């Protein structure tokens, strides 16, 4: 919370990665200062603090072997999916289309962002469920659902897949509504986050073990020639 490297003297393992993050944000601050927008880094720091605080909550749950309710889990896991942090970092680098109001909108947790978090979190948890629960891992949406509703694993999958289906509809609806009030590129960043996770996590965990479909997507973007 204090954003001070000296606070980590007793946590050497964390100090290394924190120093890297500090250096990275200082470089970004210097880059943005050329356009008088160095204060945008403040919003990234605030999003990162929120993320780390939620990671700490998850770590406590793991240690206590606690399975939260869906409501408890949602408040934390919608943050640890990294959506707000990714958006804040992306917005800072989008040039004149972004203003302070863009960040203020983001930090109100608007319906568009919440819909994106729902879809992203559940498809992530479904795809990674079996691998993560074979390890010592925080209870996923599946475990929380099974405990709260006394459901089987298959029943949890079916119910949560339906929730994802409805979530995509809600996400598209909120996108259209949001674009009436803010610039389309700002809203599009949110939509594209869910789309990206859809590519990575639909049907399998392509993040941990990339399949040929994801490999072909990456090659098409960065390796293959563009056909004109």
TrEMBL record:
Naturally occurring in which organism (per UniProt): Chamaemelum nobile
Signal peptide start-end: none
GO molecular function terms listed in the Swiss-Prot or TrEMBL record: magnesium ion binding; terpene synthase activity
Protein name stated in the entry: Germacrene D synthase
Keyword annotations from UniProtKB, A to Z: Metal-binding
Gene Ontology biological-process annotations: terpenoid biosynthetic process
Domain Terpene synthase metal-binding positions: 1-170
Gene symbol of the encoding locus: GDS
Family matches, as InterPro entries: Isoprenoid_synthase_dom_sf, Terpene_synthase-like, Terpene_synthase_metal-bd
A Pfam short name: Terpene_synth_C
């Amino acid at each position: 919370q204090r954003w001070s490297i000296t606070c980590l003297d007793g946590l050497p393992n964390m100090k290394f990665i924190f120093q890297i993050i500090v250096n990275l944000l200082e470089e970004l601050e210097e880059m943005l200062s050329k356009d008088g927008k160095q204060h945008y880094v403040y919003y990234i720091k605030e999003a990162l603090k929120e993320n780390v605080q939620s990671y700490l909550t998850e770590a406590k749950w793991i240690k206590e072997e606690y399975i939260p309710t869906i409501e408890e889990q949602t408040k934390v896991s919608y943050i640890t999916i990294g959506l707000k942090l990714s958006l804040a970092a992306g917005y800072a680098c989008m040039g004149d289309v972004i203003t302070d109001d863009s960040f203020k909108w983001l930090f109100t947790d608007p319906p568009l962002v919440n819909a994106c978090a729902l879809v992203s979190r559940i498809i992530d948890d479904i795809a990674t469920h079996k691998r993560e629960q074979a390890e010592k891992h925080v209870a996923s949406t599946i475990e929380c659902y099974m405990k709260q509703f006394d459901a089987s694993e298959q029943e949890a999958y079916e119910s949560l897949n339906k929730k994802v289906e409805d979530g995509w509809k809600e996400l598209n609806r909120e996108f259209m509504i949001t674009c009436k009030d803010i610039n389309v590129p700002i809203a599009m960043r949110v939509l594209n986050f869910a789309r990206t996770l859809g590519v990575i996590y639909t049907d399998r965990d392509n993040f941990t073990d990339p399949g040929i479909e994801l490999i072909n997507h990456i090659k098409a973007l960065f390796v293959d020639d563009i056909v004109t």
